[in-house]
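Exercise 3.2. Students should predict the tertiary structure of the chain below and write it as structure tokens, then compare their answer with the key that follows.

Predict this chain's 3D structure.
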Amino acid sequence: MYPSLSGEPKHLYVATTGSDVTGDGSQANPYRTIQHAVDQVPKILVNTWIIHVADGVYRERVNIYGIRSSTPHYLEIKGNLNTPANCRVTGADVDPTPVRAYAFIANFSSVIRIRGFYMDYCQILSVLTLISLHPAGNLPS
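Answer key:
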């Protein structure tokens, strides 16, 4: 998917039932991982991009690197805003021992919103503003 100059928001979809191989990021044919959806977003935003993440457990670390915009556009990664516990990014598999240091890592990116997730067994860095992010400590939104 490539941005147009229309400025209209672009939407990508992720679900635990999706596929990073055969999915196209549409609502009917979502990607499997948040990372794969992030990798489809251009580095220079001329549109707002919204990644809609369906309820489920996502065992991954999402690296967001170098996404910028000189306009009011941004990248939003959006889970379940009403019930963040239903959209979980976790560092744990069956064993509660942490296996991932961070769930979301953003480097050299200045236009990112992350909302509607419950995170556990992951550390949170305060290098960017996180909106409506609910770690295991249950921070208010």
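Discussion points: The chain is about 5% helix and 30% strand. Residues 10-135 form one domain.
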